[in-house]
Each structure stands twice: as C-alpha cells, then as structure tokens.
Amino acid sequence: ESVSSASFSSSQQSHSDSDDDDMDMENEEHVDLPKGAAEDPYEAHFSKKPLPQLDSTDNTNNLMPHLAKYSKANTSSLLSSSMQVHLSGPILDSWETLTGSLPDKNKPKQMWRAFARGPRQHTRQVLSRNWNSVNQNALKRSQRERSENENDISLSPLQQVLYPAISNYADVLISMESRQNRNEINNLLTMHVLNHVLTSRSRVQKHNRRIKQLAEVEDDDAADEEDDQWRDQGYTRPKVLLLFPTRGTCWAFVQKMIELLGDSALLEMEDRFEAEYGPIKREKGSEEEEDKEKARVDAIMKQKGREWNELFGEEANDDDDFKIGISLTPNVDKKKIRAKKGATVTSSGSGVKLRLFADFFHSDIILASPIGLKMSTTNEESDDEGEDDTADVDFLSSIEMCIVARSDVLMMQNWDHVNSVLDSLNQQPKNVSNIDFSRVRNYFLEGQGKYWRQMIVVSAFTDPYVSSTFRRHAKNIEGQLRIRKKVSTDNASICDVMVRVKQVFQRVTCPTVSEAGSARLRFFSEHVLPKLQRLQQKHTLIYIPSYFDFVAVRNLLLKREVKFVSVTEYARVSEVSRGRARFLQGVKPIMLYTGRAHFFLRHKIKGARHLIFFGLPEYDEFYPSVVNMLNEGLTSEDEDDVSRLPMSSLSLFTKFDAHQLERIVGTSHAERMIKGDKSSYVFAS
After folding, report:
1. Three-class HEC string of 562-582
2. Whole-prediction pTM value?
3. What is the pLDDT of residues 1-26, one digit of tens each?
4. Beta-sheet strand order (sheet of 240-243)
5. What is the pLDDT of residues 434-466, one digit of tens each?
C-alpha cells in the first residue's frame, strides 16, 4: 500500500492533506466554536504522540486519570427525558469548554448542534452530498426540516448527540437501539466508517505520490529529520472491523455504504455478494399451492413479530458463519473503469472503487461474524498440546476502529466468541517481512494501538456481559460516551401482560455475581421444587434464560425423579413437537423452556397454567409474551378441570439482575425491589 520514505525529508512536504473534492465546509452562523473545536478529528487523533511506557499493571488511569471521570450531559429538549448520556475524557473536556463558552447554558439543543458542527466540516463531499437523501427517513421521524444547503449534513436529535463522540474517535456504548432508531444509528456509523477509510486511503495515496516525486528529484540535501510526517498507516492495511450476527445484517450495512457513496461507487463482485449475503429467494410451486402456503407461513410469521422476521424470517439470510473483506480506492477515474468493464459511461469524474471479497491483507474493512472470524484465526490442525493453536491474525494488528453491531443478538449466540475476537486485535504482527516500518505510526511501534482504536458497541439494552467487555476493551485516549434509556413505570414491559394473574417476584440472596446461578438453583431446590412435588402440580412451564442453568435444573429434576419435557435450541423438531404435545395433554407435568429457544424459534407453548422464571429474560418483551401464554390451549373440559385452577407466575432474581428487572417493572420499581427490606413483591394484572 505504501512507498518507502526512508531516504526523503518530510520537511519538503508542502502540499495540503485534503483533496479538492474531499471536504465539505459549512457556513452555519449559530455559535462561535471555541479554539480547537473545528479541528479535523482524523488529524487531531492520529497525530498524537505515543503515551509514556506503561507499567506492568497496564492501568491507563495512572496516565490519564481524566478518563475515569464521568459526567452526565444535558440532553433535555433534544432527547426523551428517559435518555441518559455520560461523557468522560477529552470528549467531556470539549463539551464542558463548549458549554462554558455559550451565553445561555439552558439550551442543550443549541449546544449539541454546535458540538456536532465542528467535525461535520471535515466530512468528505462524496458522502455529504448523498447524506440527506440516505438519512431522510431518520429526519422525517424526528420531524426535522431538511437543510436548504444541499451539501449541509442534517442530523436527527439522536445523531446530534452521538456524532461528536463518534467523529472524534471516542469509544461509544449505545444501549438503547430499537427498530425505530436503528436506521439513524446505522446511517451515522456508515458515514463514519467510510469517511475514516477514504480519508486514510487518500492520505496514503498523496504521500505515495509525494515520495515518488521526491525520488525523481534526487535531492542530495533531503534528510530524514521529519520523517514522522510520512507515518500514515499501521502494520497491515485493514483499518475497520465490524462484527455482525448474520449475513443479512451484514448485507444491509453494505447496502447502506453503497447507497451513501451514490453514483461515485464503482462496485466489483456485487453479484456474488448479492447471491451469498442477500435475501433468500423462495422456490415457487403451483399458483394454488403457493397461495395456501403463503397464507399459512404469513400467519405463523406474524405471530413471531417483526423483529424476529427481520433476523430469521423466511427471506432473511440468518447464516452466522461468514467473513468478508472490502477494499476502497478513492479518486479513481469513473469513465476509465466503466469503459474497461464494457458498461455504458454516463458520467465522468473521480469515484470510489469498492471491491467486495478482497483478501484480508488487501482490505480496508472486514465484516464478519464472531464465530466466522474466530474459526479463521484458530489453527484447527494443531493437535499437540504444546503447539500454538492461533493462526495468522496479523491482519487484525492495525485495526483503528471496531464496531460491534447488534450486541444483544451476538450475546444470544455466544458472547465468548466476541471476547475472543477482541482479544486478537492490535497484537504485534508475527510476519514483518512485507512491512514498511518507515510508514508505520509510532504508537503501533510502541504496542499502544489499542489506545488509539475506537470501540463502538451497539445494543438494544444494557447488559453486564456487554458492559464488562466494553470496560475491558474500550481504552481510547479520546474518552467515552455512554447512552442508555431509563424505563418509566408506564413503559415497563409488565404493562403488556394481558392475562389476569398475580406475578410474584422473589429476590434470592446472592453475595457475588459468579454465584448467582447456584443461588437460584439452591432456592429452587429448597423452596419451589418440593412444593411442586407435594401438590403434584401439572402444566408448569419453567423459563430458563441460560443454557448452563438449564443443564443444572435438568440434572436436579432427573435426580429427584421428576417427570418433565424440555424445549431447547438444540432439540430436534420431532422431539420438540412430541414434548409440547405431552405437556399440553398433562402427560408431563413440567416443561423446561430455554431463553435461546424462545429467541431463535419463538415457540407458542400451549398447556401452561403455572409459570416459573428461573431467571429474568434479557429482552423485556419476552416477559409479557411468555406470561401471556398462560391458559393457552386449555379448556374447561380438559382433564382435572385445570382451567379453573388459579394461574400463577413466579420470577426469581438477584441483585445482579437489576438491568433485566428495570426493563420489566420500570426503573423506580426495580430500585426499590433490589434495595428494599422485603424479598417478595407482587404485581397484579
């Protein structure tokens, strides 16, 4: 990718770092930005000198104590009052400097608009001229008017809050993604990824041209005193890593990239990408059979919900084992490229060549699922215990931006794979034969790449596993932005319960988070299961979020010789159908139902009269959907007249389940239930 600069002086570099068609300069006159606020974020971030050598504890707080300081930012009149935004580090310092410079500090909408205006000036024109058309749905949703200037970048209120931190390369944790705002968030991430890669690639191209010019001059007076200015890349070419749960979600993101590039995009391997990652086309039979089948399938799919259909629906590509590299080459001659392909040339000028299925070492962007990338970075042929089981991960050594999209879905797959991939980032490469060290940035040479790497994690909700991973891997020197949503009592998912049943929430004493599962199992074994056996209670559905907890409960029931059936994500279809039928008929009094089975399959269990949540579900909508299954499929003519027995619902939780509890009962109720003197709480519907 580079041309060696070892024999030339960077002091002779006199050209500008921006192309003629690179940057979009705005002319807003709302608030004068403080000094430094309008600086190019790319230049400001990647020109910073390496940190002092770290001690063995690898504690960045010793070097940058300001990163540990969090402060809540005012977003009133811009976002819902339930939204909480916290800033830390330099991004917090910039916010406080800006708010201190404004005459009226009670106008957060104006402050955030000014805060976002600085980095917007450095968005490339190829992206900014298509932004408003791509982002129009988000703008309509927020009821904002489109900018009169065609080159101005209009942002929704949520985008105004996120954009300053994202564009300034701060770490960002978004814990409030939904179907309603997903388009806003993805539009912003797409623009940021493309802007970063195109800026980086253009700079490398310019330096290559400049170095080549200096080589032709053969100036003997050229020296190497300022050769740090040529350092514009890492050890390897890949700069951005995006993790997605399915091929379908990956395809949607790439389509957004192509849409944002507009007419400037020159695509290669598009047909193959559409065939392997695009929506799955169903084979059609006769017209009559097609109509009957479509009506049947549509009825089933409608019950599963729109969110499920987008991920796992009939046409959704839900394969979770994939990896693909994308290379971007800016400033190419569109007319020349299209003529070479034999296509009709409708416009001339410079464009961006986007090559799909590029080799990883020749890619700028890598999109993959955690399991797909982990399998490619694991040496399956190593059988000896002493042999290293890690394959070549050098292509991950220079990642400057990592985005973990749909983290809530990845967590339902296997979050350990995500942690394994993140552990592989920014390691020193093993093969250095093809590396031009005169072009490698100094912080990479010092082994500090992770402190310049931007980590963006997007999730539908706050979860301890996701938060722990973010704390562990988000170490960027620019600070952090965290945004989450508090849940009001009226918006709690328990309000969606439609059946009349008393819902008991039982707090289980637990000293540490590692003992939460065993504490719930002990309580279930000592207080719940004996009562079920004594009453010989039938039609009892036990919902278990964790598969590990399912194994523990299953072993307990086997040991106590209790009859039961189980529905898991690993069970065969015939096994599930047989178990559901026996449970409905009362032949088997207890059914164990895992959370992952409900997530991936959305079974509608019939025959349940009593419900036990061994743990609270991660998704708030799962709670009412499972509770509303009570009495489904049972009638007064059934055996033992079970429909006349009072229904019941019991939910076990610990103090470490605060996030799940908050989404189900609301923030205020959750705080009281976690910290209150009582251990049992009853809700009636």
Report:
1. CCEEEECCCCCHHHHHHHHHH
2. 0.90
3. 444 444 333 333 333 344 444 444 34
4. 70-73, 83-88, 480-485, 171-175, 454-458, 401-404, 240-243, 365-368, 323-333, 350-356, 265-268
5. 888 989 999 999 999 999 999 999 999 999 999
Number of Cβ atoms within 10 Å of the Cβ of 46: 20
| φ/ψ of residue 392, rounded to 5 | -75, 110
- Facing residues of 243 across strands? 368, 404
Best CA proximity match to 241, nearest among 271, 181, 197, 301: 197
For residue 579, CA distances in Å to 572, 575, 608, 627 come to 11, 6, 13, 20
Q: Please name the residues in contact with 611: beta carbons below 8 A apart, sequence gap of 6 or more.
A: 540, 541, 543, 626, 627, 629, 630, 647, 648, 649, 650
- Which helix (H) or strand (E) covers residue 277, if one does? helix 270-277
Query: What's the whole-number average pLDDT of the chain?
Result: 84
For position 559, what pLDDT does the model report? 96
The answer to whether 412 and 600 have CB atoms below 8 angstroms apart is yes
Could you tell me the CA-to-CA distances from 477 to 232, 233, 450, 455, 644 in Å, in that order? 19, 18, 9, 11, 63
The number of residues making up the chain comes to 685
How far apart, in whole angstroms, are the C-alpha atoms of residue 382 and residue 384? Answer: 6
Distance CA 105, CA 332 (A): 47
Structure tokens at 488: 């009001």
Kindly write down the DSSP assignment for every residue of 255-266, as one continuous string: HHHHHHHGGGEE
Decide: 85 and 75 in contact? Cβ < 8 Å.
Answer: yes
Q: Are strands 480-485 and 83-88 parallel, antiparallel or unpaired?
A: antiparallel
Residue 642: partners with Cβ closer than 8 Å, 6 or more residues away: 538, 539, 586, 609, 634
Return the exposure string of 624-646: e unless at least 16 CB atoms fall within 10 Å of the residue's CB, then b.
Answer: bbbbbbbbeebeeebeeebeeee
DSSP state, residue 414: H
Q: How many Cα atoms occupy the beta-carbon half-sphere of 668 within 13 Å?
A: 5
Q: Tokens standing for 114? A: 């000014």
Which residues are paired to 286 by β-bridges?
none
Identify the three-state secondary structure at position 348.
coil
Helix locations, 586-657, DSSP H: 595-601, 622-627
In this structure, the dihedral spanned by the alpha carbons of residues 245, 246, 248 and 252, taken in order and rounded to 10 degrees, is: 30
Residue indicated by tokens 């770290």: 54
Tokens of 563: 């009859």
Q: Is 163 left (phi over 0), alpha (psi -120 to 50) or beta?
A: alpha
Answer whether residue 66 shows pLDDT above 60: no
